[in-house]
């Protein structure tokens, strides 16, 4: 009988597990086919053109659009049904972030449409259809994520698994396409700059995909072509954020959740002034460094070396500060005795895995630089700054990952309502309420002597007791009892004050690290990449092998900084 009773449960879960495996395999094959097509176009494979790649991406976006429309229509018809929600998924600040990136992506699409119109005589029609389809895809996807990112789907589960995983890998392929296009542009600029650094032995062959015809309006063409590459970093972040939110939605399909109240943790500027000030100083100085770097690099050998030296010194200082802040935060955690929340949570698990996984990109580049410095025969002066920079990049990510992962797994401190609203109230003989002067006065017994009122505390609640004509002994005993209660209350507030100070320090550290990660996202995202311009690694490893390593690792390194900033924002709200 027990076996028969348990069989429905097994029979119900087995098809769903199969659906999860089949949908994941479908998504992986979809991604690999697109990845191979992207690679074939990048290396100019025979018979593969950009129009083939764009046609594949357009087809994937159209399929996703049909699925999202079907899901939205079905949701409207079932609006009255009560649905389970994952309160940890699709945070409001994450939705706001993806909306900002989506708006800039729409500007990018408009630039691409303008670029196609100017070069329409020699461009494939797919290059005009792609940005239009992508713009529609972006608008509907952002709306879908705003409305349904928290959904826990319990109906049509097999079909929904395929629809969601299709959306995940469609965004990953669009991310890959954006990364490759932006990397090819950066590589062309890098090849042109290498000569100024004295690396004339490296063969310079530009990978040109420019249209083979004249532009109808030269000024507009220049604005569109240059503006596109400055907007690509935001497009790249948009698609990777969308794919992570959709992945959490896919993991939540058919999930059983425990119904408990989720405490809202709004972001507040109060108490984080110090961290914000130092973080804004780092952010401002980083923007200035990037501007100077992009102006000076490639002008001459001396200016290029000075730009690299300036970048390394600034980065070493910022990374050292971040390491110090992270160590202080971890030390405070060691002083606290708070349990970790180990409940099943796909969003939190994905955050931790992405932090460690994407950090590997920076670690790969750092170890490559360290090995190149050790093995190189000649060492220009500026390359020695690369050594402490690379070492600090490795250490800083170790410390920061540990701080973030421990922070998002720590249980939120539950504060008693009595503690939040604790006040000492005395009741006079005329039954009027008044606040006692201060803890110090209560402790010294002056308040009771001056007003003739006797405060009394009972089980953490505040209550008054009327002293009606008792003897001197009764008054003395009540005064002693009041002093003891006040002393105990005073020590409680001392402990609470220490706890508040720790929380304030942690919030300032989280705010500082948040702005520092945004600052360190800016240089590689906008073309300030010393891994390209240093030149030493290319001599040791060879030009093409090192460029391949950089092009593979750099997107993960860029995403790590943005994802860390998002995680630290959540830590600041939670602390």
UniProtKB/TrEMBL annotation:
Q: Where are the transmembrane segments?
A: 26-47, 53-72, 93-117, 129-146, 229-250, 271-295, 311-333, 354-379, 505-527, 539-560
What is the recorded name of this protein? Answer: OTOP1 protein
**Entry keyword set:** Cell membrane, Hydrogen ion transport, Ion channel, Ion transport, Membrane, Transmembrane, Transmembrane helix, Transport
- Subcellular location, principal: membrane
Keyword RNA-binding set for record: no
* Topology with respect to the bilayer: Multi-pass membrane protein
Q: Does the keyword Cell cycle apply?
A: no
Biological process annotations from GO: inner ear morphogenesis
Any one Gene Ontology molecular-function term assigned to this protein's record: proton channel activity
User: What family does the database annotate?
Assistant: Belongs to the otopetrin family.
GO CC term (a single one): plasma membrane
Record's subcellular location? Cell membrane
């Amino acid at each position: 009988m027990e076996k028969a009773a348990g069989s429905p449960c097994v029979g119900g879960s087995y098809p769903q597990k199969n659906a999860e495996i089949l949908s994941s395999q479908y998504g992986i094959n979809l991604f690999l086919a697109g990845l191979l097509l992207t690679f074939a176009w990048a290396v100019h494979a025979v018979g593969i053109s950009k129009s083939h790649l764009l046609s594949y991406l357009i087809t994937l976006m159209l399929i996703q659009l049909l699925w999202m429309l079907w899901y939205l229509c079905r949701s409207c018809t079932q609006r009255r049904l009560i649905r389970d929600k994952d309160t940890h998924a699709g945070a409001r600040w994450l939705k706001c972030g993806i909306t900002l990136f989506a708006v800039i992506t729409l500007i990018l699409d408009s630039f691409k449409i303008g670029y196609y119109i100017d070069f329409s005589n020699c461009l494939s029609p797919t290059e005009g259809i792609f940005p239009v389809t992508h713009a529609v895809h972006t608008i509907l996807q952002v709306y879908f994520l705003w409305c349904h990112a928290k959904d826990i789907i319990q109906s049509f589960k097999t079909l929904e698994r395929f629809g969601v995983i299709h959306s995940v890998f469609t965004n990953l392929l669009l991310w890959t396409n954006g990364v490759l296009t932006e990397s090819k542009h950066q590589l062309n600029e890098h090849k042109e700059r290498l000569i100024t650094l004295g690396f004339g032995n490296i063969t310079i062959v530009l990978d040109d995909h420019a249209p083979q015809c004249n532009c109808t309006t030269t000024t507009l063409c220049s604005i569109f072509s240059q503006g596109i590459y400055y907007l690509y970093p935001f497009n790249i972040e948009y698609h990777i954020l969308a794919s992570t939110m959709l992945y959490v939605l896919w993991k939540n399909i058919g999930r059983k959740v425990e119904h408990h109240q989720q405490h809202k943790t709004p972001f507040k500027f109060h108490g984080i002034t110090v961290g914000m000030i130092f973080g804004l100083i780092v952010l401002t100085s980083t923007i200035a460094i990037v501007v100077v770097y992009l102006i000076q690099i490639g002008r001459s050998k001396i200016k290029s070396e000075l730009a690299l030296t300036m970048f390394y010194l600034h980065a070493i200082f910022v990374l050292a500060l971040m390491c110090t802040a992270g160590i202080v935060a971890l030390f405070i955690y060691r002083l606290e005795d708070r349990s970790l929340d180990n409940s099943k949570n796909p969003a939190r698990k994905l955050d931790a895995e992405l932090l460690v996984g994407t950090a590997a990109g920076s670690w790969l580049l750092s170890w490559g630089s360290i090995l190149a410095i050790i093995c190189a025969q000649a060492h220009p002066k500026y390359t020695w700054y690369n050594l402490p920079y690379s070492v600090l990049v490795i250490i800083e990510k170790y410390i920061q990952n540990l701080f973030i992962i421990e922070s998002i797994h720590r249980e939120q401190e539950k504060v008693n309502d009595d503690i939040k609203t604790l006040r000492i109230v005395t009741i006079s003989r005329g039954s009027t309420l008044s606040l006692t002067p201060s803890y110090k006065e209560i402790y010294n017994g002056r308040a009771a002597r001056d007003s003739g009122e006797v405060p009394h505390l009972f089980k953490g609640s505040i209550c008054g007791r009327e002293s009606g004509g008792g003897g001197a002994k009764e008054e003395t005993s009540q005064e002693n009892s009041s002093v003891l209660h006040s002393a105990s209350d005073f020590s409680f507030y001392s402990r609470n004050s220490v706890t508040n100070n720790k929380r304030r320090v942690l919030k300032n550290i989280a705010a500082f690290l948040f702005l520092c990660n945004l600052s360190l996202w800016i240089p590689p995202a906008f073309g300030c990449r010393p891994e390209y311009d240093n030149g030493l690694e290319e001599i040791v490893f060879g030009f093409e092998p090192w460029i391949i390593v950089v092009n593979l690792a750099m997107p993960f390194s860029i995403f790590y900084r943005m994802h860390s900033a998002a995680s630290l924002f959540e830590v600041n709200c939670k602390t």
